[in-house]
Automatic annotation (TrEMBL), chain A:
A Pfam short name: TctA
Stated name of the protein: TctA family transporter
Domain DUF112 residue range list: 20-438
Keywords: Membrane, Transmembrane, Transmembrane helix
Record keyword Membrane present: yes
InterPro entries in the record: DUF112_TM
Protein origin, superkingdom: Bacteria
Coiled-coil residue spans: none
From TrEMBL, chain B:
Keywords in alphabetical order: Membrane, Transmembrane, Transmembrane helix
Source organism of this protein record: Roseinatronobacter thiooxidans
Pfam families in UniProt: TctB
Transmembrane segments: 12-30, 42-63, 75-97, 117-139
Protein name (database record): Putative tricarboxylic transport membrane protein
Amino acid sequence: MELLGNLALGFAAATTVEMLTVCFVGVLLGTFVGVLPGIGPLAAVAMLLPVSFHLPAEAALILLAGVYYGAEYGGSTASILLNIPGTPSASVTALDGFPMAQKGRAGVALVLTAIASFVGGIVGVIVMALLSPALAGFALRFGPAEYFAVMVLGLVAATVVGGRGIVRGLAMVFLGLLLGTIGVDVNSGATRFTGGIPDLRDGISLVVVAMGLFGVSEVIASIRGNTRHKVSQPLNWRSLMPNRDDWSRVPGPALRGSAVGSFFGTLPGAGQTVASFVGYAVEKRISRNKDQFGHGAVEGVVVPESANNAAAQTAFIPTLTLGIPGSTTMALMLGALMIHGITPGPRLIADHPSLFWGLVASFVIGNLMLLVLNIPLVGLWARILRVPHAMLYPIVAVLICIGVYSLRLNLFDVWLTLGFGLLGYAMRLWRFEPAPLLIGFVLGPMIEEYFRRAMLLSRGDPLVFIERPGSATLLAIALILLVLAALQPKKLLLRLLKSA
Amino acid sequence: MDRARVTDALGPLALIAIGIAFAAGAWLNLDLGTLRRLGPGALPLGLGLILATLGSIALVQGLTQHAERVPRPDFHALAAVGAAIATFAILTERVGVLPAVFGTVLTMTTVIGDLPWLGRLALALSVAIGIWLVFLLGLRLPIRAIGAG
């Protein structure tokens, strides 16, 4: 079987000492930032981007991906112990996790979420291994018009992610696209919008934009939420062990959560948060223990955690096979690939098999590591929550500066990062989402390239985008998504959750 | 019109200005090309005009729908982060990265002001040592540790 051969290749690539180390460091850091409310996986991935440039492409991706899905494991810890989600998608886990903690069952909840996360992660990886080659094979028939349409779909999906209305989201996408045009145009060699500053000739670095918008502005916004959290419960081994009744309530919900999560993860723009919300709502509707939901039901922590971890893995499918990032973090992964000279798209699996299958294998290994890391170390992670913010944020600020500076030893980049940080903070105040901006910025150069190529091939006829069935279909889907977004999906989702 | 609405309108207005600036820059300074062979200015012109349009729609939405108050910026936090990053940029150029890291942490914790002096110095020193161990010794980033670049 071809799949087995591919997996063998992947495991061979992912089990070298270097890759195992990188994977371990990634998931460890990921759990750490996931546990800490305030620093999200996104900021962590952004901070590690410059470091990853010094690694080979495979190792870079394994590291960044490890941080990303490791954070999904860690995100539930603060949800359960403090009722403060460490990551957005863990907010659903708090619904039943925090009541469990109040009943003295925090340890049980933490162990069960680790197991649920593991089930979700593994199911997600299996879906990814089965689905990606097929999807990529299909997408290989794309011409420039279809690629352009795929990118538009990705951008529309990025807009839908934000909850601030489509006009504001789209405006951010276009601002990102425009910022992406700064620098030398590869087609004509003309310099665009640099204002005569030589440091801008190569364009603005993705790291600068990401660190500014997400790192710096995050620090500014949360630096003074300076409360030290109290985790009162002592966690010991006895209080960790779920009883027989708990165990019997894990397998069904975990698998259903994984299925829901796998599905929503592949949809660009839906992502982990939607996956865990929908998984929870579905489970609540079909469960025999309906009345316990919201009061510490075991299913209530198992389902969202399996769903968001499955979604975290399947989010890589559109990213790696089509080059559409479903979320901001995925946009950073795309950026990391491009910086290593790898063009994301349907050719990726065929051209770089050891990268793709190595990544798949590293997911399996990483999830195993996380399971081992999380269960015995539950107490340790809980203690991390006591680190005072007064110490944390200066460290984050320094890491941002070092990361940006190490890119090309250019202090102009550091100043520019501060500028983007102020922009990001202003956007927060004026209710504009930074995520669509970043995705627009990443996809901008590719969109322009495909658009110009498609226009050249069609001899200047813009109708080519709706005459070719492939691109017409994709653009139609993008349009439908926009209309659906206009109907405010968050409200629909909340209604679904309430009615359940 | 009340002040909250005016403040809220500044966001969309800035977007309109940025859109027009990009479009005008493309129109005046860059080759637009032909439909078949689009020049470097074609896309920025189109994108800039669309951004300005979206900004206008957001402006109208903001003026006609119920106003949301723009929160007061946290100037204390802005000063802390701004001073920290500026310290890093200025000191790195003159005395090297490690003293700059020390200065950055010291500046930021001083502006925030909720650690005692000894705590600030200890934190600054340990972060500088940590950066040296991880980034310079461990990852071997080609950065000059101490001394003017």
